[in-house]
């Protein structure tokens, strides 16, 4: 009996010591080590074996080689994605997407920071609506949320918003999500934003030409009988915006470059020393105009899908560093707005959860190495917004994604965590899955073994 009691006490002691070790590991300030990973460092432009030490929500150390810690199984560990241009349905369209569901989709997609658009109902154009958005985001989203605010009141292009007050309230950039038609109003907005050092995100399209269109002009659109717009509309819109940027000196980011014709104008602006950057949608980098051939409305986007020549020009520009940022442009639409004739259906696609596997298509095709891809997904958007994220270095936020770039799967839209399921990648064979995501050192997603 004595021996049995001693054995029981020993077992109890072991369990107690194990629990104490767990409590110490979970205590504030206690370091956590992720080891046996292939680290993707976009700033240093390399992939190497090693790990990171996390303390107080920050990366305390990045090391090469092996150490004791949580084994990442040789999978890739990279900075979390910073996704600029995410649409969330709050306020006004919570039935399409909430901060809770968008945050869950983001975490499952390796997106640790969502930079949200102001095209809500009502628009994010006052400090009060901005404060509401921030409260909702903090209360329900597991990932970081940074809001953009509208450039004009109601996004109607007639009257400038209180840019200074909105900046004080936490707005990181200003956009209407569509072209400001009145050039005089737009110039006034840019002049005021330049004086405050604000970032303006433009949508470079000539709105009169694009109005009513749903496809890119050419023989294919004519065969389909769809109202179409010339790719020239993007170049005209961009040239106007860049002329105003030159006149005002504002910091300007073109949200979605989608045509080859716009790249030359962009290059001239940069050569002239203008403070200009550019982004591209993952859909325009991986799909083309032929994907709308069966009138499937999940492929209806704004701007519309372009030619294969345009797509490849964008991919080459991304590889050359001429396109700075790649985003999902997550735009949830409910079934009722998509289950309509192509011309009448709402444009847009969800993308928070599909951004990474779609972007890895460019890696597997040999167009970009992983560090270059992560510059566009994480480092460059963080730099654009003045964030310390997007880096694997001591002092950076411990916003991380663990992924396997080679895992194959067939995407089933029904499994997406977004409320809306309007993805053009439904039933497509994809390669690359997120295994875990950390935000500020806290694990916010772990993929269940299957």
Automatic annotation (TrEMBL):
Q: Which CDD domains match?
A: DHOase_IIa
Q: Mind telling me which Pfam families this protein's record contains?
A: Amidohydro_3, DHOase
Key words of the record: Hydrolase, Pyrimidine biosynthesis, Zinc
GO cellular component terms, alphabetically, are: cytoplasm
Q: What class of enzyme is it?
A: hydrolase
On whether Zinc is a keyword of this UniProt record, the answer is yes
Protein name in UniProt: Dihydroorotase
Q: Which species does the entry assign this protein to?
A: Amaricoccus macauensis
């Amino acid at each position: 009996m004595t021996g049995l009691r001693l054995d029981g006490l020993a077992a109890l002691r072991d369990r107690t010591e194990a629990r104490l070790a767990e409590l110490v590991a979970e205590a504030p300030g206690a370091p956590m080590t992720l080891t046996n990973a292939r680290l993707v460092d976009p700033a240093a432009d390399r992939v190497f074996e090693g790990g990171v030490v996390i303390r107080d929500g920050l990366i305390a150390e990045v090391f090469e080689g092996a150490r004791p810690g949580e084994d990442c199984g040789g999978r890739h560990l990279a900075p979390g994605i910073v996704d600029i241009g995410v649409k969330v349905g709050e306020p006004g369209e919570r039935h399409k997407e909430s901060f809770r569901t968008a945050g869950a989709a983001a975490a499952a997609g390796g997106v640790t920071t969502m930079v949200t658009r102001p095209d809500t109902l009502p628009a994010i154009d006052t400090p009060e609506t901005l404060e509401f958005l921030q409260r909702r985001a903090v209360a329900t989203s597991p990932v970081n949320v940074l809001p953009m605010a509208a450039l004009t009141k109601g996004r109607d292009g007639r009257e400038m918003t209180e840019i200074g007050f909105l900046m004080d309230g936490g707005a990181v950039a200003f956009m209407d999500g569509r072209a400001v038609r009145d050039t005089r109003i737009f110039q006034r907005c840019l002049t005021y934003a330049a004086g405050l050092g604000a970032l303006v995100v433009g949508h470079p399209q000539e709105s009169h030409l694009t109005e009513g269109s749903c496809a890119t002009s050419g023989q294919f659109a004519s065969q389909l009988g769809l109202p179409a717009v010339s790719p020239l509309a993007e170049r005209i819109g961009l040239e106007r915006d860049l002329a105003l940027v030159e006149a005002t000196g504002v910091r300007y980011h073109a949200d979605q470059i989608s045509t080859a014709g716009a790249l030359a104008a962009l290059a001239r602006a940069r050569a002239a020393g203008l403070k200009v950057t550019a982004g591209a949608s993952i859909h325009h980098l991986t799909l083309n105009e032929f994907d709308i051939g069966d009138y499937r409305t999940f492929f209806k986007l704004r701007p519309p899908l372009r030619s294969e020549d345009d797509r490849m020009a964008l991919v080459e520009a991304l590889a050359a560093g001429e396109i700075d940022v790649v985003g999902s442009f997550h735009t949830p639409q409910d079934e009722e707005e998509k289950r309509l004739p192509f011309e009448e259906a709402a444009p847009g696609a969800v993308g928070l959860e599909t951004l990474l596997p779609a972007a890895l298509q460019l890696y597997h095709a040999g167009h970009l190495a992983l560090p270059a891809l992560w510059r566009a997904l994480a480092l460059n958007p963080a730099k654009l917004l003045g964030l310390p994220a997007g880096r694997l270095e001591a002092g950076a936020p411990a916003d991380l994604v663990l992924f396997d770039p080679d895992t194959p799967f067939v995407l089933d839209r029904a499994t997406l965590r977004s409320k809306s399921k309007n993805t053009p990648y439904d039933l497509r064979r994809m390669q690359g899955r997120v295994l875990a995501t950390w935000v500020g050192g806290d694990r916010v997603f772990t993929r269940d073994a299957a």
